[in-house]
Amino acid sequence: MTLLALGLLMGCGTKDGENKPNESQPIEAAPSDEVVFKPMIDPKTNEAYAMMPLPMSWRINQTGAALIESPDGVRVYNLPLRYFVYTDDPYFLQLYSQSGQPVRRFVEIDQLLHEDFLPIADREGSKFVEKMAVPEIAQADRTYDAMLFKVTPSQQQFNAFATEWQDKEGNPYLIVIHQNASYANNLLNWGYYCQAMQAPKAVYEKAKQTLLYGLAHTQYNPKSVEAYNRSEAQKANASMAAHQQRMTALQQNFDQSQRAFESKRDAINASIMANYQNADAASDRSHNRFLNYIKGEETVSAGGQRYQVQGGSNQYWVNQNGEYVGSNDPNYDPNRNQGTENQTWDEAQIER
User: What is the largest CA-CA distance in the chain?
Assistant: First the structure.
């Protein structure tokens, strides 16, 4: 299987009891070539957001297909994030599905390999060799995520696996799978992203150890984290302040018109639901912060307000409660769609 084919087909099979992850071993730096910390540059700010320990002769590219290259033929590629949502609530499950969101139950590594990776390998004539849990990389992902601003706490899970393969010519290659999940307010967000490495047979084992060590020991720039957290906090505060203003104005209108107690009760319930949905949206934003910050979020505006939404859709709709629906179908309109037509949805503009 070529790495290019895998990247294109991923967008990034085993029987029970077979091919279980090997017992993990502590990751140590590969010998010889001196290891130094190399900067990883954020293209938005042109500043280093992280430092990765790699051999001095290896290079981190800012452009081009390969993220990392070495003089002896090692190539490391970032494969795209794949993300999914799932809920036990049948109404919202249908809503997510109709709006084009990728709905999928969480699956463990064996099933993930069987469903997402092995079919591509089979078509390319490649062979799965083995997999190994890499808890040091999973812990590094968890540690970085813990540094990031969050409005609402959630139950989180981080896994990392090193999977090894052979292409049809017998050349080895490595795919490191980062899998994470976040659960809050009856909504599960989960996904995975990968780094893929190809290297000549003579240097493959050393290169594999070097890459795993680098991923497990990457250090993040505190200034970049602080700037990101400050930006997210400002967005959250602005969203809450705007919401409070809307609720205050609404309550004044109720008082002036001396509406019945039932109407006031309904308004309070609407306020509670809006807070619930704001917290839910904030939980979505906190999922996979590393890739979302670099690649994945969208800011949209509707009715004079700004909203932070999950990327991946071409258009978004927002209702009077601050709930949003994203879709890639140009003909989709929740005002006419069964299950959502009893609400008013305004089409939001994506801010570029």
Answer: 82
